[in-house]
Amino acid sequence: MRASTKAWIVTIALTALTAAALSAGMNAAPLGWLAFLAAVTLVKGRLILLDFLELRATGRWRRGIVTGFSAAILTIAGLLALASF
C-alpha cells in the first residue's frame, strides 16, 4: 500500500472520529474540544504535507515545514483558548 493511500485512510478515520466526538457532545468542554481539534489538525496536516504533497523526501526542509505548521496550529489554538475566557 502506498504512503498516500495510508495517509488518506488515516485522514478519513480522523475525520470520522471528529464527527463522532461532535455528535457525542464532546464540544461541551471548550478547552478539551480545542485540544482535540488541534491534535487532529496537526496529524492530518502533517500527513497532507508530507504524503500528498510528497514533501517527505525533502530532507532537512521537512523538519522546518513540520515545525512551522505545528507552530501555526499551536498559535491559533492558543489564541482561541485566550478568546474563550
Can you describe this structure?
This protein has 85 residues and is mainly α. The chain has one domain (3-83). The protein is 80% helix and 0% strand. It contains three helices and no strands. The protein has helices spanning 3-23, 30-52, 60-83. Helix 1 (3-23) packs antiparallel against helix 2 (30-52) and helix 2 (30-52) packs antiparallel against helix 3. The longest helix is centred in the C-terminal third of the chain and has 24 residues, at 60-83.
As for the number of domains, it is 1
Query: What best-fitting shape do the alpha-carbon axes yield?
Result: flat
Q: Classify the secondary structure makeup into a structural class.
A: mainly alpha
Query: Termini distance?
Result: 46 Å
Cα-based radius of gyration, to the nearest Å = 15 Å
User: Count of DSSP helices?
Assistant: 3
**In sequence order, what are the helices and strands, one letter per element?**
HHH
Uncertain residue segments: none
Query: In total, how many beta strands?
Result: 0
Ordered list of secondary-structure elements with their pairings:
Elements: H1 3-23, H2 30-52, H3 60-83
Helix pairs in contact: 1-2, 2-3
List keywords for this structure.
85 residues; 3 helices; mainly alpha; flat; 0% strand
Quick recap:
The protein has 85 residues and is an all-alpha fold. It is 80% helix and 0% strand.
